[in-house]
């Protein structure tokens, strides 16, 4: 669609809109979840679901995270399936790459602005759930593009 001058240094940079930046964001989320596990906190889908919801499927507490960064990240995660459908309908994988870069930036802002592991119990669990969801969305998007989602970098 557009002319582009290919440059390895730009492609492999860890900042900006690059694959390594998205991979780094995934690895950062994985690191947070590893630290949660080391602290005995829930860090898997099953563990977080059990901690966040009672056996009847209703929320065990009000896990609201009111920050703008949490809201922005949640909105991007929620929009991911529709983004994939749009990319498939239009035969444009760049739609997915753009969304992944936006999600990685939103995750970075959330991580920077929010104390995740040091917060009180209820917000901490909700934040860990959001970290898990971001990690999963990034991994799924990278997989669709044929790119590995490393657990460590």
What string gives the helices and strands in order?
HHHHHH
Average residue-wise pLDDT? 87
Determine the structural class based on helices, strands and strand pairing: mainly alpha
Low-confidence stretches: none
Strand content: under 5%
Helix content: 55-70%
Number of helical regions = 6
Q: How many distinct beta strands? A: 0
Report on the biggest sheet.
none
Radius of gyration: 16 Å
The gross shape turns out to be: globular
What do you see in this structure?
This protein has helices spanning 8-11, 19-38, 45-52, 68-90, 94-113, 121-144. The mean pLDDT is 87. The chain is globular, with a radius of gyration of 16 Å. 65% of the residues lie in helices and 0% in strands. The chain contains six helices and no strands.
Task: Offer a quick outline of the entry.
By secondary structure, the chain is an all-alpha fold. It is built from 6 helices and no strands.
Question: Which descriptors apply to this entry?
Answer:
single chain, 153 residues, mainly alpha, 65% helix
């Amino acid at each position: 669609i557009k002319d582009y001058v290919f440059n390895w240094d730009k492609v492999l940079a860890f900042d900006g809109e690059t694959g390594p930046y998205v991979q780094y964001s995934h690895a950062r989320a994985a690191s947070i979840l590893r630290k949660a596990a080391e602290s005995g906190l829930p860090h898997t889908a099953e563990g977080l679901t059990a901690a966040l919801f009672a056996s009847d499927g209703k929320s065990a507490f009000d896990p609201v995270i009111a920050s703008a960064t949490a809201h922005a990240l949640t909105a991007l995660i929620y929009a991911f399936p529709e983004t994939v459908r749009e990319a498939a309908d239009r035969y444009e994988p760049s739609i997915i790459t753009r969304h992944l870069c936006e999600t990685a930036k939103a995750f970075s802002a959330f991580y920077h602005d929010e104390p995740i592991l040091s917060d009180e119990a209820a917000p901490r669990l909700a934040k860990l759930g959001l970290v898990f969801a971001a990690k999963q969305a990034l991994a799924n998007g990278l997989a669709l593009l044929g790119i590995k989602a490393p657990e460590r970098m």
